[in-house]
Write a structure and sequence with these properties.
This protein has 659 residues and is α+β, with helices and mostly antiparallel strands. The protein folds into 4 domains: 75 residues, MutS, DNA mismatch repair protein, domain I, CATH 3.40.1170; 124 residues, Reverse transcriptase/Diguanylate cyclase domain (Alpha-Beta Plaits); 100 residues, DNA polymerase, Y-family, little finger domain (Dna Ligase, domain 1, 2-Layer Sandwich); 170 residues, no CATH class. 47% of the residues lie in helices and 14% in strands. The protein is globular. It starts with 33 loop residues before the first helix and ends in a 5-residue tail after the last helix. The chain binds a DNA duplex (13 and 18 nucleotides) through helix 2, strand 3, helix 6, helix 12 and strand 9. Its cofactor is Mg(2+).
DNA sequence: GGGTTGAGCATTG
DNA sequence: TTCCACAATGCTCAACCC
């Protein structure tokens, strides 16, 4: 049944070693002639550039597995015994976090896009159908799945598997409409449900079960029936368990139009998890499965615990922790925080070309699309990543961090062109652009929380007469504090202990840099940039406080640095009280250096980031970075790990990193 | 030692 | 005839900087 077991390829059956994702079992694919599917997929792919790339990736994976085997063999008995101690301790710690008090429900719509299309066109009922086109299909209905057709399969292969397959083009607005209908139902059971995608969601139904005196299974039945009637006939499957990880596994068990309930007691969970294949776990994909299986002999979740010492010896701590938690049937049970998007991107595939003019025009199109999407969502970002897929399917990415936040297609295109130019000549079949590092990342607002700025205001009575613009600034800086920082700052301003006070003062120092970043964007979605923003800011201040400034000329040709109200830098909005003499000097130096840098390399360009980093770094050094990198370390505690790397030599094997 | 940045890769739907 | 998408997220590592 497992694709991995077919790796014993014989010369007469070369397709048996061609492990594509399409041969992995999916709901509705039981009884499919897997060998036939594998053979056809192999025959149609053989010799293509895509196939060659797959072979290259496969070879790389085998190398990784081999390398891990070697490292495994080198482990001594005492090494393993030491790692076992680590495992034993972690098991105790993880067990202490086990929470069997919650009831989580995972809902997954059945063949969602295909079902929606059938709903709006009943003549498709009972016929094999796929949503998508000849290059790629998004989903297939259950009739098509019987032929081995499935999501993410190229349409031309799907047609070969099922010559009568009907193709229906993707219609996102339609799916969004139906998705909204299902979400209306979900909200009745958990107003804070987590939408995984258009067609799936996690609901914490603990309260609704308690209030109505119903079991998780009864609620699931009711919800599914409600989804069916509200959508006019769409079916879904559900899983009920103590945590989200288990609930997701459960929803797949009786698909389609079914449900599975896993009782909330430890021994039931452990029995359930013991024989569960690792691939069933969200986050463990083809590569991880092969590495764990072929290098370490780990096939089931139980094996993760039994071979825990190997995992801790060979993988990073966070990966090993994840594996061990899986082996214990532990998953997230908390009410998740609001998550905001981290990046936005746009990419297009086309016939491979090395024609620079053509590539530039594609790039311009994509920059325009991306800029449009960003404006639509009111986003500005400062890191641009160019993604290229060469004619041989090799993926390359090149990134640059800009000096300022932007969403303009001109800015994006200007820097993207530079990045692309550095790669030429090359034949390319896909170009993608991604923008990340949003100004939003530091805007997790929660008006109920105390803020450093409030503290500053209370501390400094000379700033009691703040005008409206200042109030706006305060709100912006309030929004600048990340969740982590807000946690540390949850104090009542009237009852502040010495330690809290000390913390607050330390935060005051660091908050200036954050304020600086936030203020650049506080007027969104008006999308003011650079000089416009500065002008606007100055206009807003001119009537009340322009006269109350001290000027420091830092460069002959540039606008002098002014401390508005004796407090705030007119160039970037950073706030530094007069007593911060050294910091102010450093700040002036920063603007001077920035200007010199601009003179050297042209405006807002940062394609040689090192020197720039040095300058910006200096600026940040003043803020005694207590701040975590936003959304990285903290989020890793809440979001499933998707990739697993070994402790060392991760790149030494493939060594293909390009500089 | 710890933070940032850039690059590569895995995973998901 | 058609010949393997797109969007988003996060982990890890190396290099660099303070």
């Amino acid at each position: 049944m497992d694709e991995g077991e077919s790796s014993t390829n014989s010369p007469s059956r070369p397709w048996e070693s061609y492990n594509t994702v399409f041969t992995n079992a999916k709901a509705g694919m039981e009884g499919v002639d897997k060998e036939k599917v594998q053979r056809i997929v192999y025959e149609m792919s053989k010799g293509s550039k895509y196939f060659q790339n797959e072979e290259r990736k496969e070879a790389l994976m085998k190398q990784k597995i081999e390398h891990m085997r070697e490292r495994c063999a080198k482990l001594s008995a005492s090494d393993l015994s030491n790692y076992q101690k680590v495992v034993d301790r972690r098991i105790l710690e993880l067990e202490a976090t086990r929470d069997l008090s919650r009831v989580w429900l995972h809902v997954d719509m059945d063949a969602f896009y295909a079902a929606v299309e059938t709903l709006s066109n009943p003549s498709l009922k009972g016929k094999p159908m796929a949503v998508g086109g000849l290059s790629m299909i998004s989903t297939a209905n259950y009739e098509a799945r019987k032929f081995g057709v499935r999501a993410a399969m190229p349409g031309f292969i799907a047609r070969k598997l099922c010559p009568d397959l009907i193709f229906v083009p993707v219609d996102f607005p339609k799916y969004t409409h139906y998705s909204d209908l299902t979400r209306k139902v979900f909200r009745n059971y958990d107003p804070n449900f987590i939408a995984g995608s258009l067609d799936e969601a996690y609901l914490d139904i603990t309260e609704v079960c308690r209030e109505r005196g119903l079991s998780g299974g009864e609620i699931a039945e009711e919800l599914r029936s409600s989804v069916h009637s509200e959508t006019g006939g769409l079916t879904c499957s559900a899983g009920v368990a103590a945590n989200r990880l288990l609930a997701k596994v459960c929803s797949d068990i009786n698909k389609p139009n079914g449900q599975f309930v896993l009782q909330n007691d430890r021994s039931t969970v452990m029995t359930f998890i013991s024989s569960l294949p690792i691939r069933k776990i969200g986050g463990i994909g083809k590569v991880t499965e092969h590495i764990l299986k072929d290098a370490l002999g780990i096939k089931t979740c139980e094996d993760m615990v039994l071979k825990g010492s190997l995992l801790y010896a060979l993988f990073t701590q966070s990966s090993a922790d994840f594996f061990l938690a899986v082996g214990l049937g532990l998953g997230k049970t908390d009410t998740p925080e609001v998550r905001s998007r981290k990046s936005i991107s746009s990419e297009r595939t086309f016939a491979a070309t090395g024609d620079e003019r053509l590539l530039n025009s594609k790039l311009a199109e994509i920059a325009e699309m991306l800029s449009h999407d960003m404006k639509k969502e009111g986003l500005m970002a400062r890191t641009l990543t160019l993604k290229l897929k060469t004619a041989s399917f090799e993926i390359r990415s090149r990134a640059v961090s800009l000096q300022r936040y932007t969403c303009s297609s001109e800015d994006i295109l200007k820097h993207a062109t530079k990045l692309l130019k550095a790669e030429l000549p090359v034949s390319i079949r896909l170009i993608g652009l991604r923008m990340s590092q949003f100004s939003e990342e530091i805007r997790h607002s929660d008006p109920s929380q105390g803020t450093i700025t409030k503290f500053i205001v209370q501390k400094d009575s000379s700033r009691q007469n703040l005008d409206d613009n200042d109030s706006f600034d305060l709100d912006a800086s309030k929004n600048c504090l990340s969740n982590n920082e807000r946690l540390s700052l949850s104090y009542t301003s009237h009852d502040t202990s010495y330690d809290q006070l000390k913390d607050v003062v330390e935060y005051e120092e660091q908050s200036v840099t954050q304020n600086q970043e936030c203020k650049k964007e506080e007027k969104r979605p008006q999308v003011l940039e650079g000089d416009d923003l500065l002008r606007k800011h100055k206009e807003s201040k001119s009537d009340t406080s322009a006269e109350k400034t001290e000027a420091v000329s830092i460069f002959p040709q540039m606008e002098p640095l002014l401390w508005v109200d004796g407090y705030k830098c007119n160039l970037c909005g950073i706030e530094l009280p007069p007593s911060f003499v050294e910091e102010r000097q450093e700040h002036s130096d920063f603007h001077l250096a920035q200007r010199l840098q601009n003179e050297e390399s042209g405006p807002s360009s940062s394609t040689t980031p090192t020197s720039k980093r040095r300058i910006l770094g200096k600026e940040k050094a003043n803020s005694k970075t207590k701040k975590q990198k936003p959304n990285q370390k903290d989020d890793s505690k809440h979001i499933p790990i998707h990739t697993f790397f070994t402790k060392s030599n991760q790149n030494s094997n493939d060594g293909t990193q390009k500089k």
